[in-house]
Specification:
The protein is an alpha+beta fold. The chain has two domains: about 120 residues, Alpha-Beta Barrel (N-terminal domain of MutM-like DNA repair proteins), CATH 3.20.190; about 110 residues, Helicase, Ruva Protein, domain 3, CATH 1.10.8. The structure holds zinc ion (ZN). Zinc ion binds next to loops.
Length: about 260
């Protein structure tokens, strides 16, 4: 699943390819996507000039010069393939945007769960999202006040997009490891010093994340705890454990992630 750094990278490539250009044609190639972006909406997009591409959480908002927008979400396996009109069709092509300069942007998606939605107002399409992890207004104190309203453990809280926009399962686990915080710790029980460490850890793991396409299999060796159940903790020599929290796997080291432990 693409995490925030991969979506940021994809949005950057898309921005470079399409901003300032006019959409010549939109083609939707998969029935489930056609339900989200019907023919009438495909036609409405044609002729519009792309003003900007903004990432918000894991959403990519393509702002058009007339004030409308196209909102993309990759879900499990989506990605952009950027080429030229007339190139061979990309594998798993679900939709194509052709620009007036001959650029063709393909939404490639093996699972076909990614979405594209045209809207007059992106705010009505985007869910309520918390601050971006790199937002300077996000501080240990602001995080503390958000978490003070939450029941339950810190790890599921970090995955809640209303708490932080775009932090996914891998980076939540890696950040907690880095901050030495027990993922089962109560979200509202963490003190300011622990939250300061956690926020710094989130920013570090996101900054160090590999840019480019997400490849879970090859990336595994880079993680400190994620997907390393039964393996040795790189910091303390303890054994990495896997538990399930809110339906998601959590990997952590019970030996050195003890902050906030109940
Ligand atoms: Zn450890």
């Amino acid at each position: 699943m693409p995490e925030l750094p991969e979506v940021e990278h994809a949005a950057r490539l898309l921005r470079a390819a399409i901003v300032g250009h006019r959409i010549a044609r939109v083609r939707v190639l998969h029935p489930s996507l056609r339900a989200k972006l019907p023919v009438a909406d495909q036609r409405r997009l044609a002729g519009r000039t792309v003003r900007d591409v903004i990432r918000r959480g894991k959403h990519q908002v393509i702002h058009l010069a007339d004030g409308t927008a196209l909102v993309a979400h990759f879900r499990m396996t989506g990605d952009w393939a950027i080429g030229r009109v007339g190139d061979e069709r990309a594998p798993y092509a679900r939709a194509e945007l052709e620009l007036d300069d001959g650029t063709r942007v393909t939404l490639a998606d093996s699972r076909a769960l990614a979405t594209l939605v045209r809207t007059d107002d992106p705010d009505t399409v985007l869910p309520v999202l918390g601050p971006e992890p790199d937002d300077p207004a996000l501080t240990p104190a602001s995080l503390a006040s958000t978490l003070a309203r939450r029941r339950g453990a810190i790890k599921p809280a970090l995955l809640d997009q209303r708490v932080l926009a775009g932090v996914g399962n891998i980076y939540a686990a890696e950040a907690l490891w880095r901050a030495r915080i027990d993922p089962r710790a109560g979200a509202r029980a963490l003190d300011t010093a622990q939250l300061r460490r956690l926020l710094a850890a989130i920013r570090t793991v996101l900054r160090r994340a590999p840019a480019g396409r997400y490849q879970a299999d090859t990336a595994t060796s880079r993680w400190n705890v994620y997907d390393r159940e039964g393996l040795t903790c790189r910091r303390c020599g303890g054994t990495v454990r896997r538990i399930v929290q809110a339906g998601r796997s959590t990997y952590y080291c019970p030996h050195c992630q003890t902050a906030g432990k109940r």
